């Protein structure tokens, strides 16, 4: 299973002072040595093997918008070159400006309205130490230009807004798409319930302390569910990032909202 990691660094896109050709950009897809919010530390050399394998295959590392691997128009370009330096994984990319999605993303980059890179990866080798989990060897699948909201709750609300747009559109979805959307919605609802429980915090602890030992917990105190299956908080953490769900729901909202209006 692949994972996603964001890099909060400014993307350098073609402009008057950037010395890049039209449609090109420069950025760090990953940085070395810093501990991220997951407790991971990417070490120098983590990309050496995977970059060599991409080169040996003669394939181009794709540049996506928002990690959307299903929409061909979200494949907005490719990596011209990638190398590790003392700071991190530095890439030079070329956007396909004939693609309307890529053209819009390019405008966002030139206007400094999006400034984040992210990459999809799998861990080949890592080592847990006192200061965090050191990632020593990674498989790189793609790099993405992303628009990262301020926090996970904002991402959840973005998904919920897109869901409402789908409902208002009144479009009849296929059974397969409807099932996928319902499962994603259930996942989002479970995350929201989890956040609400965290906000209540001390109040819940006080209530549980006052319960009788043999009291059966109320349904609202049980673990969140996805569909009809209970899931743990650890499973929620390992699930698809909310930002990925947000990107997919926004895509469906625009597509079905416009066609179904």
What does this structure look like?
The protein is an alpha+beta fold and 261 residues long. The chain folds into 2 domains: 144 residues, no CATH class; 109 residues, no CATH class. The protein contains 7 helices and 11 strands. Strands 1, 2, 3, 4, 5, 6, 7, 8 and 9 form a 9-stranded mixed β-sheet that branches. A two-stranded antiparallel sheet has the order 10-11. Helix 3 runs antiparallel to helix 4 and helix 3 runs parallel beside helix 7. The longest helix is centred in the last third of the chain and has 26 residues. It is globular.
SSE inventory with pairings:
Layout: E1 3-7, E2 12-13, E3 24-31, E4 40-42, H1 48-57, E5 62-65, E6 75-84, E7 88-95, H2 100-110, E8 116-129, E9 132-146, H3 152-169, H4 175-200, H5 202-209, E10 225-226, E11 229-230, H6 233-238, H7 242-260
Parallel strand pairs: 4-9, 5-9
Antiparallel strand pairs: 1-8, 2-3, 3-7, 5-6, 6-7, 8-9, 10-11
Compact description:
Helices cover 38% and strands 28% of the residues. It has helices at residues 48-57, 100-110, 152-169, 175-200, 202-209, 233-238, 242-260; strands at 3-7, 12-13, 24-31, 40-42, 62-65, 75-84, 88-95, 116-129, 132-146, 225-226, 229-230.
Short descriptors:
globular; 38% helix; disordered C terminus; 2 domains; 261 residues; 7 helices; alpha+beta
**Order of secondary-structure elements:** EEEEHEEEHEEHHHEEHH
Low-pLDDT ranges: 149-161, 219-229, 257-261
SS content category? alpha+beta
The DSSP helix count reads 7
The helix fraction, in percent, is 25-40%
- Main β-sheet description: 9 strands, mixed
Strand content: 25-35%
The number of domains is 2
- Give the rounded overall mean pLDDT: 73
Q: How does the overall form come out from the CA principal axes? A: globular
Number of strands: 11
Query: N-to-C terminal Cα separation, in Å?
Result: 37 Å
């Amino acid at each position: 299973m692949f994972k996603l990691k964001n890099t909060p660094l400014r993307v350098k896109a073609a402009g008057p002072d950037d010395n890049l050709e039209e449609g090109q950009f420069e950025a760090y897809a990953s940085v070395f040595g810093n501990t991220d919010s997951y407790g991971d530390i990417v070490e120098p050399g983590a990309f050496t093997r995977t970059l060599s394998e991409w080169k040996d295959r003669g394939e181009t590392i794709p540049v996506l918008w928002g990690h959307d691997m299903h929409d061909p128009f979200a494949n907005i370009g490719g990596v011209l070159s990638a190398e590790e330096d003392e700071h991190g994984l530095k890439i030079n990319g070329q956007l396909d400006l004939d693609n309307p999605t890529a053209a819009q993303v390019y405008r966002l980059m030139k206007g400094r309205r999006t400034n984040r890179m992210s990459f999809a990866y799998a861990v080949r080798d890592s080592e847990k130490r006192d200061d965090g989990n050191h990632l020593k060897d990674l498989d790189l699948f793609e790099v993405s230009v992303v628009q990262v909201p301020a926090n996970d709750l904002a991402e959840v609300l973005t998904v919920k807004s897109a869901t409402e747009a789908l409902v208002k559109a009144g479009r009849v979805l296929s059974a397969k798409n409807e099932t996928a959307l319902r499962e994603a919605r259930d996942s989002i609802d479970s995350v929201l319930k989890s956040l609400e429980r965290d906000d209540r915090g001390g109040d819940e602890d006080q209530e549980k302390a006052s319960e009788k030992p043999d009291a059966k917990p109320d349904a609202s105190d049980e673990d969140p569910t996805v569909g009809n299956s209970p899931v743990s908080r650890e499973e929620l953490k390992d699930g698809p990032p909310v930002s990925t769900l947000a990107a997919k729901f926004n895509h469906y909202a625009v597509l079905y909202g416009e066609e179904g209006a």
